[in-house]
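Supplementary Methods, section 5.1.

A reviewer requested that the exact input to the structure prediction be made available. We therefore reproduce it here, unchanged from the version used in the analyses.
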Amino acid sequence: MPTLTALLQQIEDYLQYHEKANPTVSKSTVGWQLDHSLLVIIGIVNQLEQSNPENYQWRPNWKRTYIQLRNSIPRGKAKAPKLVRPLETASLDDLQSKLAAAKEKTALLQSLPANSYFTHPYFGDLNLKSAIWFLKLHTNHHLKIVNDILNKG
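The structure derived from this sequence is encoded token-by-token as follows.
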């Protein structure tokens, strides 16, 4: 799977298509997909930064294990939490600003303790290594949707 840096570059490459839509693929636009991905990256890194690594405890989670084995997220099975669900169509300037923030945030990942963590709504607590895995998986999932919006129909 591509690195987060490479995935952010793909997001940047797709920004020019932010207004494109294809209802046969998704109800949302390319911009929504990119905006959501950026909000997730920023939000998760914020949670990792604010977490207390001493409080992290690994627990088994069958949903997480299933997704890890598949190494893909099934489409249309989960709804994004309100916190990372764009409410309106972001402008190109808004998306560029969020992309810059996401790049800054991902650069911080190297300096965080291994047991920094965030709590995923379905997978429970994910430490730094698992959080990075999830960020790549999630971003790649939405980039595949973007690609389908642009190339199918």
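The beta strands are 117-120, 124-127. These observations are discussed further in the main text.
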